[in-house]
Amino acid sequence: MEGSNGVTTLANEFKTWPMLHGIVDKKGDDQFVTLLGVWFKTASSFSPFNWFEPPRWMELRAQTAVVGCHLVEPREACFIASMGTIENMTQWSRHSGTAMQYFKPEVGTVGGRIEITQLAPLVAELPTVTAKLHQVYWSPYADQRRSGTVARIRESATIEFSSADGKPLDEWIDLLAATGDLVSMSTLSPCGLMSIRMYLPPTPEMFPEDHPLRDQRHEVEIYTVRVVRPKPEEEAHETWQMVLTPDDLDFAQLLPKWMEVHERFASARGMILGLRYVTGGYVETQVVTAVAAAESFHRALESPPPIPPDEFASLRKGLLEDVPPKFKSWLAARIVRNEPTLKQRLTDLATRPGEFMKHLVPNPEAWAKAAGDARNALAHLGASGDHDRNHLYALVRVTDAVVILNLLFELGIPTARLEQALSSHRQLSHAASLGREHFPAAPATDAG
User: Fold this and answer.
1) Which DSSP helix (H) or strand (E) runs through 162?
2) Residues 6 or more apart whose Cβ sits within 8 Å of residue 422
3) Angstrom distances, CA of residue 302 to CA of 166, 296, 339, 340
4) DSSP 409
5) Less CB within 10 Å around the terminal CB: N or C of the chain?
6) Is residue 364 within 8 Å of 351, Cβ to Cβ?
7) pLDDT-based confidence at 237, cuts 50/70/90?
């Protein structure tokens, strides 16, 4: 196709590559780089006479860049460890070696002291890897400005996963991303991965016996497209506004349990966090997502069917035998599953974490009916039915809170802590106020 200025464009000539090798100049040193998930964006050629000549210049995009090695294939099981930093994890860890003291030696003067204590990492054992939550410290340093001198120290939490056996890159990234989801769930806000590093096994055969790098792992930097773009310079999330920290459940128990919940309730967890990772949008979309998350969560519980399987099979057989032949296929398609209705699933979720849930959903039946009706109207009729936007917004916030509290309940968080979070956390307490306003308790009936 002829373009402007005599440029010839060849469409569909370049598509994707699973992996590309290259070399990059990093601070004056040439380093190997592996690009994964590469796709073509633009290219140009300066030869107007030979259309089959390779392009002289080409712009590519990649899902992941591995700086420091050439992989043999994208899922090469060569990395023995990974390390990452996550937004808000330093405060979330509740594991600080920094202490500050303030005092006034004399009237009119000020004084103070900052002390650093090197702490042992928090450790958790997973089925195939060991997790360590480190506190990393920088020595005190001073910024010299024209306005004066500012002296400071720096502390940062880092999560490390390690294994005796090598694993592919994507498995390590999944572990780091799941930890980021844990911090996001704890803060009820998007928390992105700020840095990712992988480690290759030591290669002592490449160094003399007294060389300091002989027994050290080889560090590889990872740059990848992330769901949440980190904003490391913004203020940290307030610890008292976190619904979950290692103070509530010991890190050695919390991380393995979270990995189980993360996998078991993957769809529900993804949709609930997705409401925070992709902010804004239409309230109708949020209603469908929140109710779908609640339904998915309840399905993952694998509760017993409402009718014993043998009785259901007998009942279905009898119904199909009694119905006229022309209606058999219609009826058979409608009595396939022996499972609770959506309203029954929602009602169960509104009560299972504990009695305190009445502060969030005073009338579970009314909320379940409204949520189911709104979801069905939006998904099947393309309209919100009788629900105005304020009511839809309340449905989103209450349903979101119901799923969050059920996820925390599955983690084994004490009921008293869940009740405290419901009353003190801004998002959850706001949802509770909406629940009381839109789904108030049913009036008591006169027994006489």
Assistant:
1) strand 148-167
2) 356, 359, 360, 401, 405, 428, 429, 432
3) 34, 10, 10, 11
4) H
5) C
6) yes
7) confident
Residue 265 phi, psi dihedral angles, 5° rounding: -110, 40
3-state helix, strand, coil in the chain (%, to 5): 40, 25, 35
Q: Percentage of the chain with pLDDT > 70?
A: 90
Q: Which two tokens stand for residue 413?
A: 């968080």
d(CA 288, CA 347): 17
Beta bridge partners of 137: 155
Work out whether the CA dihedral 217, 222, 227, 233 comes out positive or negative.
Answer: positive
Place of tokens 């590093």: 197
What's the rounded Cα separation, in Å, for the pair 48 and 258?
59
98-112 pLDDT per residue, tens? 888 887 777 767 788
pTM of the model: 0.86
Residue 356 has pLDDT above 90, yes or no: yes
The H-assigned helical ranges of 21-71 are none
Tokens representing 192? 């992105």
Rounded Cα gap, residues 330 and 351, in angstroms: 35
The span from the CA of 245 to the CA of 419, in Å, is: 15
Tell me if residue 141 falls in helix, strand or coil: strand
| CA neighbor of 188 nearest in space, from 405, 396, 371, 333 | 405
DSSP 214-247: TTPPEEEEEEE--SS---TTSPPPPGGG-S--TT
Model pLDDT for residues 155-206, shown as the tens digit of each residue: 899 999 999 999 999 999 999 999 999 999 999 999 999 999 999 999 888 8
Closest residue by Cα to residue 172 from 193, 187, 151: 193
* DSSP per residue, 331-342: HHHHS------H
Question: CA 286 to CA 279: how far, in whole Å?
Answer: 10
